[in-house]
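Can't paste images in this forum, so I'm doing it all in text. The chain is below; anyone willing to post the predicted structure tokens underneath?
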Amino acid sequence: MADTYDLIVLGSGPGGYVAAIRGAQLGLKVAIVERERLGGICLNWGCIPTKALLRTSEIYHYMTHAGDYGLKAENIGFDLAKIVDRSRKVSGQLNAGVKGLMKKNKITVVEGFGTITAKGKLSVKQGNGTVDLEAKHILVATGARARDLPFAKADGKRIWTYRHAMVPEVMPTKLLVIGSGAIGVEFASFYNDMGADVTIVEMLPRILPVEDEEVSAFMEKRLTKDGIKIVTGAALEKIDSGADGVKATIKGKDGKSTTEDYSHVIVAIGIVPNTEEIGLEKLGVTTERGHIKVDGFGRTNVEGIYAIGDVTGAPWLAHKASHEGIVCVEKLAGGNPHPFETWNIPGCTYSRPQVASVGLTEAKAKEASRDIKVGKFPFIGNGKAIALGEADGFIKTVFDAKTGELLGAHMVGAEVTELIQGYVVARQLETTEHELMETVFAHPTLSEMMHESVLGAYGRAIHF
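Text version of the structure:
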């Protein structure tokens, strides 16, 4: 006899485990199936451990620049094994926390590889045996994995994915990062701050290509100043990996190819959704380039089968998956949530300096034929930023000139990943420039730049 539930969640990442908890809160009998560790990639091999590493490199950077703050620090060094160990312990602590949440909410955790065998039926392979489960609703939250180079698959020795880059046994001496999205730039920032000679190669004309063009240009200039070599409009033609390093041949925007030696390579060229071998084809679930097609409530074309998170497509962000999971479960439980939309999802890059954004870039707003007003305020005009020794960066806001609607916000500089939520809330509440101008911001804070950027869009900036 199969164990029977109201809801089975396949995958326990930030989409899956949040959906399971919300289902339990709504009175559903819930099971969650996980083949590896609770918390998924984000908690175990992504968002959380990388932030632990980046915190270490940030502190190390401050230590090596102690003189800028009137301090003395001598014989500065690091223990790579302890850096990695701290990162893994942070993930372990949160993994234990998710286990506790499952227990608290009376969610059954089934370990193993789950396959949907029919509508409402799921089989979980455990070692040499299987466990059969049944539920009216099955939610696929299997996430995604790193995309490999077709001609140079990651081996964990010289060619790394993000997983390998998080647990290095040795510090790279000369590192090539292929791809300049958030993952590539974060690892480039970490390893550069820890002393590696870093090169970023990007096939598109600019780094961080989804960000506002001014943000991308600022980051390229700043990272270059910090010692990172950046090659855009370039294609990786060949990689030869050996015991002592890697030879990479790169074709530049001028059409010329050059070959250079590196100690290690990080491949950060995107993701592949985990949709294979979980029974979707047999049921006729519609996919597009591997991603499961869903509506605003996570419903697929097959009744009783739902999907959320990275497996459904961009933006591939943990907070997007979590919110999708809540909307999906509330709907299937009989509620009336607002359908999920992607118009107000913030994106963050936790490099040094940080990047954060939400909504339309200036270019996208113009492409949409919007009449716009743009405000921009630099960190150098903010007292708190100067006091912190973090005077590089700016905040940019884009408004509809006719309605005052906040179309987008784009930031680069210290702690902007914390600041961006102010604009996200403003957009969610459909706040116009008037309410933002009338809001009082505490002094001295970095958040004052958010106010000044809004004022700047209307020719009223005070401190610049």
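The CA atoms of residues 395 and 411 lie 4 Å apart. The two ends are 71 Å apart (CA to CA).
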